[in-house]
Amino acid sequence: MLLFSFLLVGMVIASASMGYVDIGPSDLASLIKTEIFNDPGPVDATVKTIVMDVRLPRILVCAAVGGALALSGVLFQGILLNPLADPYTLGVSAGAAFGACVAILLSLGATLVSVPLSAFTGACLTLFAVMFLSFSGSNKGGGFSSNSLILSGIIVAAILSAGISFMKYLADDQVSAIIFWLMGSFASKTWGEVALTWTVLGAGLCISLFFARDLNLVCLGDRSATSLGVDTQRVTLILLVTGSLLAAVSVSVSGIIGFVGLLVPHMVRIITGPDHGRLIPVSILTGSLLLLGADTITRAVLPHEIPIGVLTALIGGPVFCWIFKKSQEI
Q1: Distance (Å, rounded) from C-alpha 72 to C-alpha 240?
Q2: Where residue 53 sits, what CATH number does that domain have?
Q3: Which residues span the membrane (predicted)?
Q4: How many CA atoms lie within 13 A of 129 on its CB side?
Q5: Residue-wise over 97-131: b if at least 16 C-beta within 10 A, else e?
């Protein structure tokens, strides 16, 4: 885990120095010294504006969203006992997209928080709808079953996707704004969004680590977990809400970014094994590294910036097909 932490710090520094305006290591070191020790060193005002007001908020939000999506994927795959589960399985992304489209269609985008707040509201309402549809008092596993949750998520997501298509039809001049938001981007992030995403990620990490042992036992099956003293209904509900809120906040600030929550847990299990006490923190660091690396490529390496959701879908889609095919052969 220490190695991944050092790699993430190195990635943050490298990403902050790359872009349309290259910033040398000496300028970056002087800026860091000035900001940390309040030392009025020889820092160019333009460099300070680029790093502190443009690049660093984007980098930190990107790292937090990558970690939150990865953690959400770990929780969903553990709770649902399904290797294909991720934050989008329950329709949370479709709910957030629907909320954002409503805000854009009603021209609420002029205010700073209207689109993210509307997306977050849509994601939470979708989660409650999915949980209401899937809840069954006759289920001995605690009211929620893996199959009913996934089927409910697919049904609600299909309805919301039809609603999004209808709003695109009505949007006229605003349809380009809707499409751009749906493709995902970290452009124009603020320090307020940095505080929001890292606060939610920190809370999600604490809750997940607290229930890591219980989650290990839940992965053995409801009967085994119950016989070992785990309240499966309580653990499932808490971790389900935690994972969904992590995904909802991530989608509300960055748009639709798929496959991070699906792929990262599978990659990290090869290194750490199935123990969630090690899987959770390493998955967060790996998710941050991967998404920050992809965002740096789209922002600073490619000749024209492309939405990061497109890049993650192009890479993650084939891997998703491989995991699906492999799961059928087991």
Answers
A1: 9
A2: 1.10.3470.10
A3: 6-23, 59-81, 87-108, 115-137, 149-170, 191-212, 237-264, 306-324
A4: 20
A5: bbbbbbbbbeeebeeeebbbbbbbbbbbebbebbb
Q: What is the Cα–Cα distance from 305 to 326, expressed in whole angstroms?
A: 34
In this predicted structure, which of 81-90, 163-172, 176-185 has the lowest mean pLDDT?
81-90
What pLDDT shows up at residue 146? Answer: 67
Spatial separation of the C-alpha atoms in residues 187 and 184, rounded to whole Å: 9
Tokens of 8: 């993430």
pLDDT digits (tens, 9 = 90+) for 265-287: 888 888 888 888 899 999 999 99
Average pLDDT of the chain to the nearest whole number: 80
| CA distance linking residue 242 with residue 205, whole number of Å | 9
Boundaries of domain holding 133: 1-329
pTM above 0.70, yes or no: yes
Which pLDDT band, with edges at 50, 70 and 90, does 68 fall under?
Answer: very high
Domain count, the chain: 1
CB burial class (10 A; 0-12, 13-18, 19+) of residue 177? middle
248 alpha-carbon distance from chain centroid? 8
| Among 202, 198, 222, residue whose Cα is nearest residue 210 | 202
d(C-alpha 239, C-alpha 203), whole Å: 12
For residue 297, the model assigns a pLDDT of 86
Residues 316, 262 contacting (CB under 8 angstroms): yes
**Considering Cα of 91, then 92, then 97, then 102, what sign does the dihedral take?**
positive
Establish how many alpha carbons lie within 13 A of residue 311's alpha carbon, considering only the half-sphere containing its beta carbon: 19
Q: Which comes out higher in pLDDT, residue 79 or 24? A: 79
- Name the pLDDT band for 327 (thresholds 50, 70, 90): low
- CA 321, 1, 279, 271 torsion: positive or negative? positive
59/288 Cα distance (integer angstroms): 10
